[in-house]
Amino acid sequence: MQLKTFDDMRKLNPVIKVKGFATKHSIKLSERTLAKKEAADNFLTDLADVLLFIIRIVRETFSPDFEFKEFFRQCFQIGYKSLPLISITGAIMGLVLTIQSRPVLVNFGAVTMLPGMVAVSLIREMGPVIIALICAGKIGSGMGAELGSMKVTEQIDAMEVSSTNPMRFLVVTRVLAATLMIPLLILYADALGILGSWAGANIKGDVSFVLFFSQAFSHVHFMDLIPAVIKSFFFGAVIGVVGCYKGYNAGRGTESVGVAANSAVVLASLLVIIVDMIAVQITDMLVS
Amino acid sequence: MNTGQIINNEPVIEINNLKKSFGEQKVLENVSLKLFNGENLAVLGKSGIGKSVLIKCIVGLLMPDGGTVNVFEKDVTALSRNELGEMRQKIGFLFQSGALYDSMTVKQNLEFPLRRIKKNFTEKEIEEKIKEVLENVGLADALNKMPSQLSGGMRKRISLARTIVVDPLIMLYDEPTTGLDPVTSNEISSLINDVQKKYKTSSIIITHDINCARFTSNRIIMLSEGEVHKEGILKDFEDSTDPLIKSFFMLN
Hints:
The structure holds 2 protein chains of 2 kinds. By secondary structure, chain A is mainly alpha-helical. Chain A folds into 2 domains: 36 residues; 225 residues, no CATH class. Helices cover 84% and strands 0% of the residues of chain A. Chain A has 11 helices and no strands. The relative contact order of chain A is 0.13. Chain B is α/β, with parallel strands linked by helices. Chain B is built from 9 helices and 10 strands. Chains A and B meet through helix 6 and helix 7 of A and helix 2 and helix 3 of B.
């Protein structure tokens, strides 16, 4: 409802009703209240849409006629085609972490702790979060843009009228592929990170490959790896769902494609950080 | 003018009092029409009048706010998702933009609906069918091209091939000649008539191109302000003194 007259105000604002008149200030306040209400309504509507979207994904995943061929194609696209980027990121992550930490550890005479510290940091936190954020940028935006442009050019409608369920063909395959491939990419990046760390340790020191790796893995426990792997699956699912949701629900016009891709990256990155925070809390409670 | 014969007076699509709004914008207010078996029905009207909305309601891409849409005597609004899928197998929809799948070659675009709808086809039958429809649209050599390598007219032809590859009984054409030069428009109009004759289809052709309507239609309906403004054969429209129809035909 738009507030045009003081009568409109009186209907809405009980304080004004008592006083019998509305001031410019009170009109501004009520307009602000209405804007907040609208924002809250939109947020709740969006939230309901996302929940319904996730329910549809789960339902379609277990329905017959699973699109195996498209699923494997997506695994290839998400997993194999991300390898160069993930390899470089993983190796540099380990290298930089080692070069930055070494002087501090040398000061404390704890340079022998370097392999273990880097390995634990990479496996528990840095590997999963940084690779998930990279994937949110590469894979999330890719999904948002691809599905968004398919929506704008009526390709999703064309799929629907040719008796193909676009949710099953486009969304379920992408979400499952992301959920499966991103944890594998994270583990791969962790391994390359440790390799990069060994290279970093050899810039100013001399440590053998076998010694470095045995030192590194002697500090890594089962409970370092398992929570990290579990949260990686959630990162993958979040990136897949957000990318597909933003693309699938893109508006009309080419501008919507850019908006879908951009908002997919922003929201997926934010959710990765939030999921990480929750995962750390839960792990901390369970372990301690 | 189209000399195709209406097979009989049995309606394959029957729409009664169709209503559709988007928010507060009323698009279709009270549309009723019938499509008879074997005929080409052209739906004319200004841009934004709701012509595309009408055929999207027929195929279940949009749900009407009121009225009934019967396709082969089944109400589209009352069908389950599976039933709607079965019904769509009998309908071909040519999108305004062509809607070819960008990431697939022409061959893969044609295989996509074929493998899903004609599940009992062997590899040989699939190849033969693809070859047949590509020859019918005059693009037999485009098999391994990507959609981005095709011109606007070629995209429309391939899109038409993808639609007829599953032998639909009803064809819905959404502005098939929009954005094409007059020569290519005429070629597409000829193809629409060829499809009617060869595949014995009943068609609704959404257009604001009078030449296309003249050439392809057995019957014409004009929409205006959310309702059917006039219905008849081409001569009824050409002889009409109605200012809207006159201006439409004269300007075209």
